[in-house]
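Write out this protein's structure.
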Amino acid sequence: MPAVTTPQRSSATRSKRVRNIRSIRRGDHIEVRSGEQVYYRGEVRDTAPGLGTIWIRGDDEGTRTAVSVEDFTIWKIPA
């Protein structure tokens, strides 16, 4: 799975790590990271807090992706 980009300093200072996915809502823009590497970036389409899963629509290609919060960190970014 190729990484999107390394987070920019400007987006890193404005982004906020999400520790509880119950705070994420449909339409929120997020980055999915592992360490400092951004793997996905897009708009939240659906969440399943009980499963620890978020579905996003990617910014670049528009594909829908399921993301496990156990495998990645989630960062809420300004739209």
